[in-house]
Amino acid sequence: MKVNMELQCKYCHVLLDHSTTLEAYQLHFQVEHDQDEVELNMVGICECGMVMEFVKTSQIGNTGGEADLFQCVCGKHGWVLRGKK
Q: What is the pLDDT along the chain (85 residues), one digit of tens a residue?
């Protein structure tokens, strides 16, 4: 299963729309968290709409690349491929 990655507020865990501008992110942190620094997490989103939990990172053969495994509470899992380090 393909895992979509989205930005999530580090503090309140709200998912922020990928089309949101930097100014809107800053406003969220100023209003909701009384701070100027924007702190986001990149999270996997399942087909069911839930945030997936990171499980592990694995090497991809001899390519030097890596893949991250994510698991959802609904039982589905998926990989996100990353390039070489």
A: 888 899 999 999 998 777 888 888 899 999 999 999 999 999 999 999 999 999 999 988 877 789 999 999 999 999 998 876 5
**Sequence-separated (6 or more) residues with CB below 8 Å from residue 21:** none
pTM of the model: 0.73
DSSP state string for 21-77: -HHHHHHHHHHHHS-S---EEEEEE-TTSPEEEEEEEEEETTTTEEEEEEE-TTS-E
> Which residues contact residue 12 at a Cβ distance below 8 angstroms, ignoring those fewer than 6 apart?
32, 33
Please state, as a whole number, how many other Cβ atoms lie within 10 Å of the Cβ of residue 17. 9
Q: Looking at this protein, which amino acid is placed at residue 54? A: F
